[in-house]
Amino acid sequence: MLSRLYITNYALIENLDIQFDAGLNIITGETGAGKSIILGALGLILGNRVEGKHFFRNDRKCVIEGYFRIAPYELQSFFAENDLEYEPETIVRREIAVDGKSRAFVNDSPVTLNVLKALGELLMDIHSQHATLQLNTEHFQLLILDSVAGNQNIVSEYKRLLARYRESSDMLRHLRETIAANNAELDFNQFQFDELYEARLQDGEQQQLEEELSQLENAEEIKRGLASANYLLSDSEQSAVEELKGALQQLQGVERYLASVGELSGRLESALIEIKDIADEVATLEQSVYMDEGRLNVVNDRLSVLYGLQKKHRLETVADLIVLQQQLETKIQAVADQEGHLSEMETQVERDRVALQHVAEVLHGSRAAVVDKVEKHVQELLAEVGMPNARLQIDVRFLEADRFKPSGASDVQFLFSANKGQPFQPIHKVASGGELSRVMLAVKSLIAQTSALPTIIFDEIDTGISGEVALRVGEIMERLAENMQVLAITHLPQIASKGNAHFKVYKQDEGDKTKTNIVLLDKDKRVMEVAQMLSGANPGESAMQHAKELLES
């Protein structure tokens, strides 16, 4: 429950410190006094976003703090999941800096707005006069059924399975698209691969062939050069070999007279042997070189194949062609592999669908099971607030053919009849504003009983009602306040007279500033406030007496 609300420097509020009662708290005040401002500040600590700058003084930050007694509500798991320190009296604080930036804290630990909002949903429900529009939405109608049925866990499980089913379905769709694209390219890729495979590509082959081609094309010049070299080395009368032989003989002739010539003779003999070897190899090589037209054609043809493939694929080397061949082979194999994976993926999606279908059916059955309870409760409460012939009919249908929605596989519609003989129609088409308010009160009271929410706020839910009906509405709020904290902002004296605590919101001028204040009314001031609500600013004796009677009742 909300035990204390502290507001400083927000809109028309300079400083407010409000201590709330654990039961029914009534808040009254003239239109424009600032009730909605207090509600707006409360919304900020429940996770609402800051819309613009709202400062009483523009040179100071705005601070809003709510003190919540949460010991009875078993919220320890929420604090553990969000790495927050749990305190039986938890303090929620929102600060808005002068530049408009805001920060949020739970027990002095900084939190995101998402965490703050999630905590706020566990602490408080704010129902305004405009919230009756929610009755027309399927989301809210399903929320009513789920709250009464206690479907929180199964709804979470459904959402988890729905997310898994959608993920696997997306993966299957992507895989099918990939396979279709690969299949469209398969024939072309296979053709290119076969062409490269049949070419029997070898790394380094092109360089070897180009060298061989050069030799074949210049065979005559090569042979002529080798023959000339061989002639000069060994065949001519003054060949290198013969000249060296003569020089060696001369050195050997004087070697017996000059010992140092022996070393030179040895070296010259080694050179002669080396020259003879070279001459022999040149002769052999010269004999092996000849013009082979057949081989020249073979080499030219092979190089034409390699050059043609390089040009076709815009590559520069045979090594690049080999890499391309490997890539094509991988793509072709991937198509075969993906066909096998497709079968596995289809099986997985079907498993996910069956699991989701089962939980959807269980969720739908749980919703359908509480329809009678909701209809009966609303009918009884509407009779109590002056609508004895009103009926609510809830139509819940299961969606066939795997029509899974984020909310489940249920279609729901609230149908309403306010009078005898009036056919059931969608509630927003036949219910007036006052009737919608009473239906919403009945629904909210039922949700409050089943959800164990600490606090509920009714912001002018009395729209369109008065007199005895307003008195009955006040009595319902009293009963609600026996099990939870209720804050009711109202303009009706019948409701205002029911509270355990009565606060009055008012404005006052101080210098060049208008300020909003709030005060807890004592017994005498409360009589005066109710009397003024009955008859105006200057109530007479009868209004005062009526006010006393309302408060005493």
From TrEMBL:
Q: Which GO terms describe its molecular function?
A: ATP binding
Q: Which residues form the RecF/RecN/SMC N-terminal domain?
A: 2-511
Q: What does this protein do?
A: May be involved in recombinational repair of damaged DNA.
Q: Which Pfam families match?
A: SMC_N (PF02463)
Keywords associated with the record:
ATP-binding, Coiled coil, DNA damage, DNA repair, Nucleotide-binding
Q: What is this protein called?
A: DNA repair protein RecN
Q: Which InterPro entries match?
A: DNA_recomb/repair_RecN, P-loop_NTPase, RecF/RecN/SMC_N
Source organism, top-level taxon: Bacteria
Q: Which family does it belong to?
A: Belongs to the RecN family.
One annotated GO biological process? DNA repair
* Cellular component aspect of the GO annotation: bacterial nucleoid
**What positions belong to coiled-coil segments?**
199-229
